[in-house]
Amino acid sequence: MDKVLLILLFLIEIIAFAWLILEAKSSRKQREQILAVENQILQLEKTIISMERTIIRKVDKINHLTRREKKLLENEKIIKHDKR
Question: Model pTM?
Fold first, then answer.
């Protein structure tokens, strides 16, 4: 009877160990998938930041041109006023 219990216990331990190995493999795959998604998100964020920088540069150029146009208009008004 003792031998039967020892064999059953041994089989239960083998099954439990196999189950742990399968769970470890499964969780490793899930971690790898999570890391892959996080890398994709990181790349997307880098792209967004790059686009934002481009937009900021273009807006700065537009603002610079707008200030320049205002100065030109003011100069034109001054010149017209001086001609009178």
Answer: 0.57
